[in-house]
Amino acid sequence: MEESSDPPFVEFYKNLFDTEGASNKNDDIGAFEDVEEWEVPLIDLSRLHQGGWEGAECKREIAEASQKWGFFQVINHGISSDILEKMRCEQMKVFKKTFHEKADNHRNLNFPAGSYRWGTPSATCLRQLAWSEAFHVPLTDISNMGALTSLSSGNLDLRPVLDISTRKPARFEGICTKQTQIDKVTSWKGQWIVSWLPGFELRDEHAAISRSWACHIVGCPLFADTLRTTTMDQFATMVSEVAENLAEILAEQLGHKSDFFKENCWPSTCYLRMNRYPPCPVSSQVFGLMPHTDSDFLTILHQDQIGGLQLVKDGKWIAVKPNKEALIINIGDLFQAWSNDVYKSVEHRVVANKQTERFSTAYFFCPSYDTMIQSCFENSIYRRFSFREFRQQVQDDVKRLGHKIGLPSYNMSNGHKCFDVKFHVKYVGLIGLTKKAWSHQNLTFLENHI
Ligand SMILES: O=C(O)CCC(=O)C(=O)O
Ligand SMILES: [Fe+2]
Question: So where does this one cross the membrane (predicted)?
Fold first, then answer.
């Protein structure tokens, strides 16, 4: 018999199934009834290139959706459907490996150790069990791997690939060649820095993009059987450009034109998470992914047509209608803190599907660990913290309590409120209301800024 690629959820979490199956209590997670399907605001990013009123209106809509929804969709984002399809194809191939190959990080998979995750090790009841598997990949490792491979092959060349409409380099492509324009390549703070030969015209935009060059110079023929790093890196690099642009727009709409994101969020400080939600025979009892907020500045999600993503809007769960052309953007905790609660990091979850598997890819736009997060306004709601501290706190809370607390731990305005939220957060749904109450005080404030 062929070995299955699905994780052994029922066998491994047998205790949870036995206990709840035997008890009489109503264990339905209620993720299907009364959840209406909505279209999340859809924004056409090609309007940004038009400048003038159209461009300004587009930016305003991005900020408005981030404030009112914490979620929006974008079309004409600059990532070709070809890349998106290739990425999905490679992702499906990887998940088709047997469960043991994935869990043992089979050498052909070529992912950093610990990237593969499935289920919820800390679950104490079925509603805490995620019926999904994922490769959660820090992009540092991937780019460095790529760079090393290419470097060891000798000569390489970087070519700027121009964006047809702006005539600026949209990205660099690396190839191995005898003719190289690179003088030397050094490593600094986990990044590969390119020094160009004299005569190569290096402009500002080259310098900014060349920081991520390692992401392009991959193409590792040794690992032909793996998720091709070229596809993944091409995807990650393009998505990172969209993420940086959106972050800058969001900052600008708060009246903060700054290089904060360019300086602190590099492609190599970000994460790519490939999710697979296998068909689930007990879809009324478990989630595909439990309610959570993302711990980053913003997330860019590419999902297939199956659907299952839900989010909290005005205190109610709603289902997101899939749109083939669109990428979904959601604000993460760091942007909520940075914007002093103007932009909302909204709870979302994925419901499991009885018959059909579902795929999604999330790009988490994160700063380096030492980056300090602090409100860009005076009278900040949250105390200053480093991204390292925040991540550590999230991990500790999950270990200790079985769930993340996140931003409420950093709220300075009201000590006892933090305690309330720690308590409420256990109960799905209540956190949405609590957050709404908090953010209310900032609404007038925002209106003045946008
Ligand atoms: O798969 C999805 O639709 C959502 C994934 C997600 O929220 C995450 O990976 O953080
Ligand atoms: Fe998420």
Answer: none
CA-to-CA distance for 47 and 43, rounded, in angstroms? 9
- What is the spatial distance between Cα 404 and Cα 386, in angstroms, rounded to a whole number? 17
Residue with tokens 């052309």: 325
For residue 131, the SS3 value is coil
Query: Alpha-carbon distance 327 to 321, whole Å?
Result: 12
Here the tokens at position 87 are 């990425």
Question: pLDDT tens for residues 419-431?
Answer: 333 333 333 233 3
CB contact at 8 A, 112 and 182: no
Identify the three-state secondary structure at position 180.
coil
pTM to 2 decimals?
Answer: 0.76
In this structure, the strands spanning 191-196 and 298-303 are: unpaired
**158 pLDDT tier (thresholds 50, 70, 90):** very low
Using DSSP bridges, classify how beta strands 316-320 and 309-313 pair: parallel, antiparallel or unpaired.
Answer: antiparallel
Give CA angle at 180 (173, 209), nearest 5°: 35
Instruction: Indicate whether residue 303 lines ligand 1 (CB < 6 A).
Output: yes
Q: How far apart are the first and last CA of the chain?
A: 61
Residue written as tokens 């034109």? Answer: 257
358 an active-site residue? yes
Query: Which amino acid makes up residue 26?
Result: N
Strand partners, 272: 137, 363
Of 47, 349, 358, 384, the active-site residue reads: 358
Question: Ligand 1 atom closest to Cα of 330?
Answer: 7
* Torsion, CA 59, CA 63, CA 69, CA 71, rounded to 10: 60
* Six token digits for residue 139: 């992009």
The H or E element that residue 273 is part of is strand 271-277
CA distances from 30 to 286, 317, 376 (A): 10, 10, 39
**Strand, coil or helix: 235:** helix
Are 366 and 259 spatial neighbours (Cβ–Cβ below 8 Å)?
Answer: no
Determine whether the shortest distance from the Cβ of 309 to ligand 1 is under 6 A: yes
CA distance 18 to 12: 11
CB atoms closer than 10 angstroms to residue 8: 13
